[in-house]
Design a protein that fits this description.
The chain is an alpha/beta fold. It folds into two domains: 169 residues, Rossmann fold (3-Layer(aba) Sandwich); 107 residues, 2-Layer Sandwich (GMP Synthetase, Chain A, domain 3). Helices cover 36% and strands 24% of the residues. A six-stranded mixed β-sheet has the order 2-3-1-4-5-6, sandwiched between helices. Strand 4, helix 3 and strand 5 form a beta-alpha-beta unit. Helix 6 runs antiparallel to helix 9. The longest helix has 18 residues. It is globular, with a radius of gyration of 20 Å. It binds guanosine-5'-triphosphate. The site of guanosine-5'-triphosphate (GTP) has 24 residues, from helix 1. Its main location: cytoplasm. Monomer. One of its GO terms (cellular component) is cytosol.
């Protein structure tokens, strides 16, 4: 008989799917803390963020990936290569399809890519089941089963928490036997500075339209406790947009919009880090940064 210690499972999972299918929300619901930002705008996620799901006898490290889509800009291409390299490095893949939308070309495109990653088992996840009735969910399960030969197909709702435990069990069952990879209770290894930048970007995305969401990038230049004031954290951040006209929109009349974004971001950062925060947020124009390799590197998107 093997001892309990040797039966511990630990490893990596990632969720893939079209933009906006609920991958980040699902990861947050599984991890139980807000580590990846979500928004109703597609392509919100730009980095592989890890959350750690602690279960009795197992540790599941979830890598969040950007939505897989056909590349349009240089940023898009880089996102796709990031997703594909992630797929070969994990132990199990969760392929997300929303319950409330018909399967389309985008889903088939991804299913085909996944079929090429032969070594990694793929669990299909039908997300947002709270938005569809039972028959619609049943029809979607059938449609998904016709897309490819998945290890399992699991309907869930990150909103209500329905069957998230079943999903976690199924993902864990496909992890290798391994000692824990992270200390007990640790939820993410994403550097705090990146999380803070993402929270600021999330606050800035609220209420902006058209191409502007994709033009916003945030970099935390400096962050640390104020000398002599251990209860106060100073955060200096730059928000980049691509054109001066966008800068005007982000700042708003008499700076009202920027002030509002700063206040909301500060509250989120304070909630995340459990400390008071002073946020210094400056807007900068980085012309067409999405298409400029040098700017992309500066903003943290590497080849
Ligand atoms: N009702 C409902 N809405 C959900 C659920 N999961 C996600 N959503 C919503 O769907 C939208 C997109 O969710 P995200 O988690 O940002 O989607 P994503 O797939 O990570 O998106 P990208 O980062 O663009 O790839 C958000 O408005 C979520 O609130 C769910 O289970 N039920």
């Amino acid at each position: 008989m093997s001892s309990p210690a040797t039966e511990f499972r630990a490893g990596f999972a990632c969720f893939v799917g079209r933009p906006n299918v609920g991958k980040s929300t699902l990861m947050n619901a599984l991890v139980g803390a807000k580590v990846a930002i979500t928004s109703s705008k597609p392509q919100t996620t730009r980095r592989a963020i890890r959350g750690v799901v602690h279960r009795p006898g197992a540790q599941l490290v979830v890598v969040d990936t950007p939505g897989l889509h056909r590349p349009r800009t240089l940023l898009g291409e880089r996102l796709d290569s990031l997703v594909l390299s992630t797929l070969t490095e994990v132990d199990v893949i969760g392929f997300c399809v929303p319950a409330d939308e018909a399967i389309g070309r985008g889903d088939r495109f991804i299913a085909d890519k996944l079929a090429a990653v032969k070594k990694t088992p793929v669990v299909a996840v039908v997300t947002k089941c709270d938005l569809a009735d039972r028959e619609a969910v049943a029809r979607q399960l059938l449609a998904v089963s016709e897309l490819a030969d998945f290890a399992e197909i699991i309907p869930v709702s990150a909103e209500t928490g329905e069957r998230l435990d079943v999903l976690a069990d199924q993902l864990v069952a496909r992890l290798p036997l391994s000692p824990p990879l992270y200390p007990d209770g640790e939820l993410t290894d994403e550097p705090e500075q990146l999380l803070v930048a993402e929270l600021i970007r999330e606050a800035a995305l609220e209420g902006v339209r058209d191409e502007l969401p994709h033009s916003i990038a945030v970099v935390v230049e400096e962050m640390g406790p104020r000398p002599g004031r251990e209860d106060l954290l100073d955060v200096y951040a730059h928000m980049f947009v691509e054109r001066p006209s966008q800068k005007a929109i982000v700042i708003g009349p008499k700076g009202a919009r920027l002030k509002d974004v700063g206040t909301r971001a500060r509250q989120q950062i304070e909630a995340l880090l459990g400390t008071r925060v002073y946020l210094d947020l400056r807007i900068k124009v980085a012309k067409d940064w999405q298409r400029d390799p040098k700017q992309l590197r500066r903003l943290g998107f590497y080849d």
